[in-house]
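Notes from hallway chat w/ T.B., transcribed later so I don't forget. T.B. wanted the structure written out for a chain they're using in a teaching module, and asked if we could keep both sequence and structure tokens in one place. Agreed to drop them here.
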Amino acid sequence: MKESPRKGLIILAFISIYIVWGSTYLLNKIAVTELAPFYLASIRFIIAGVLIFIIAGALGHSLRITQKQFLNTLFLGFLFLSFGNGVAVWALKYVDSGFAALEVSAQPLVILILMYILQGKKIQPMSIVGVILGVLGIYLLIGQKEILAQENAITGILMIFSVMLSWGYGSLFVKKADLPPNYFVNTGYQMFNAGVILALMSLVFNEPWTLPQTWQADTQWAMVLLIVFGSIVAFTSFNFLLKHVSPEKVATNTYVNPIVALFLGWLFLNEKITLQSVIAAVILLAGVYFINTKKKLVLFDRFRK
């Protein structure tokens, strides 16, 4: 690929993971006001999975995988999408989309702590600073009277935290798992399997199922955008960037997504942005930066000399 066209694709891919992933909080919030959460997520991922299989087949990729690879995609599909996304969408019934995005932005903090607990990985000095800032940011975020005064807000907060634990464990598991070598095929199986599990979860919870033609226009558009852009385009962009750009640059979506979600929630859903939320966001995202940075803490290095 020539340098100029590739540079253009890289810019478009960054726009995708910044804007599209940031907007999925708004889109899910719109859709979940009419559709049951597990039913909503099941349709999104089953259709997206089928479309990815069709695209992968058209590109000449084999869809055949081993039994172990299938079971691993099933497990990861549950962690990332069935439980991870399904419960996150459910939580949006109780908390604002911008608030949810800010809480989820602490995901690197959760992964860091899980790596310490489950793998015994030492936490570096810069990461310790990040953990302290992250905890402070979360405290300021969820401790707001305006948030706690909302009905079932605590339930929504705890649901999102459980989702972060699920995503965190899945992120650790995926590094050692035997998965389909083609990332597109791998994603297709994860999405389709997750969609089937979500459909079963929807039946267990006795959620109402309605036909798409009966949905409100806003819900229909939200679902189309979630399937095409949130599930297919953004993930493809993410994997494209991982091949052509350093991982720490790709991870900058962690800083941008909450800002996009806060702005869109304020613009389209009239969600309030409090001063404490802004302060919490700055502290929390600073903590995420310290966790992700590869720089050394000079203060600690001086003591080693």
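Follow-up for T.B.: The two ends are 47 Å apart (CA to CA). Might be a good example for the class.
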